[in-house]
């Protein structure tokens, strides 16, 4: 398998020296097609509406690229000379690269479409397709990736908050997530119920949870019950 791309696309928003999130960069569309004329036409179309485009003639070129820290998507030909687009999709998934993929092909069939969509493709366009169909698909894909990146940033921030808890506060939050009452947690940890309440209150404050329901929701997102069982 070819060397896989650097996983910078999975990182959260870049931050400046003060720790403040920097302005998100403009979206990028990766176009992969071994037909020079068609690849050029797609590139020109996307750039004509103000999109940043990185174009590649092969899967190898894509798989050795460095992802920008920006919302992005991949427009990928299913039938490349050296690789199947579906294989490239699997390679990216195994590497943890989650960019939305729009497949294009001149030889599409229903089983192929189903396989691609089940593996997470956002669209499957059969040549010839209208320019607007591609632009609409790219717009949806970039929007999906923007939502994914925001969700990843939120989860990263949540993990940092959990790591900021003391060991005892983490224990208490974990037991709260398992559904234990304060008196049960006190018995489990050999503490007084008042001490448990203090630790729980501190955990809620540091996690930014206004209610117990908020704290439980955060525990679900962090998979605390499973990972700290």
TrEMBL record:
<dbReference type="GO" id="GO:0000160">
    <property type="term" value="P:phosphorelay signal transduction system"/>
</dbReference>
<keyword id="KW-0804">Transcription</keyword>
<feature type="domain" description="HTH luxR-type">
    <location>
        <begin position="158"/>
        <end position="223"/>
    </location>
</feature>
<dbReference type="InterPro" id="IPR001789">
    <property type="entry name" value="Sig_transdc_resp-reg_receiver"/>
</dbReference>
<dbReference type="Pfam" id="PF00072">
    <property type="entry name" value="Response_reg"/>
</dbReference>
<dbReference type="GO" id="GO:0006355">
    <property type="term" value="P:regulation of DNA-templated transcription"/>
</dbReference>
<feature type="domain" description="Response regulatory">
    <location>
        <begin position="28"/>
        <end position="142"/>
    </location>
</feature>
<feature type="region of interest" description="Disordered">
    <location>
        <begin position="1"/>
        <end position="22"/>
    </location>
</feature>
<keyword id="KW-0597">Phosphoprotein</keyword>
<feature type="modified residue" description="4-aspartylphosphate">
    <location>
        <position position="77"/>
    </location>
</feature>
<keyword id="KW-0238">DNA-binding</keyword>
<keyword id="KW-0805">Transcription regulation</keyword>
<keyword id="KW-0902">Two-component regulatory system</keyword>
<dbReference type="InterPro" id="IPR000792">
    <property type="entry name" value="Tscrpt_reg_LuxR_C"/>
</dbReference>
<protein>
    <submittedName>
        <fullName>Response regulator protein TmoT</fullName>
    </submittedName>
</protein>
<dbReference type="Pfam" id="PF00196">
    <property type="entry name" value="GerE"/>
</dbReference>
<dbReference type="InterPro" id="IPR011006">
    <property type="entry name" value="CheY-like_superfamily"/>
</dbReference>
<dbReference type="GO" id="GO:0003677">
    <property type="term" value="F:DNA binding"/>
</dbReference>
<dbReference type="InterPro" id="IPR036388">
    <property type="entry name" value="WH-like_DNA-bd_sf"/>
</dbReference>
